[in-house]
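Thread: Newbie trying to understand structure tokens

Hi all, I'm a second-year student working on a class project, and my supervisor (Dr. K.) asked me to get a predicted structure for one chain before our next meeting. I've only ever worked with sequences, so writing a 3D structure as a token string is new to me. If someone could post the tokens and maybe explain what I'm looking at, I'd be very grateful. Here's the chain:
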Amino acid sequence: MVEKRLYAQAVGWEVLRYAKELNTHELAQKVDSDAITLIKEIKAILDDLTLNDSDCFLKIDAIVRAFHKYDLPTDRHWELE
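---
Reply by user tm_fold:
Sure, no problem. This is what the structure looks like when written as tokens:
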């Protein structure tokens, strides 16, 4: 796990170095677009009446899956990473 995180960090720095050469406005638009898409997905999950249980486990699981789809880590469901 440590090796994976170190590798990801090294790759991340290289991507940031490369991104500085790109049009930052276009890059920011892509990040904003992904963020808005994720928010829309979460809203749809919260509005989904088929994901209805008293403790909201179904909705929580769906939201966690949405985060993982965008490679966003969560403290919940570490076994899915």
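A couple of things are worth pointing out once you decode it. Residues 24-47 form the longest helix (24 residues). The mean pLDDT is 85. Feel free to ask follow-ups in this thread.
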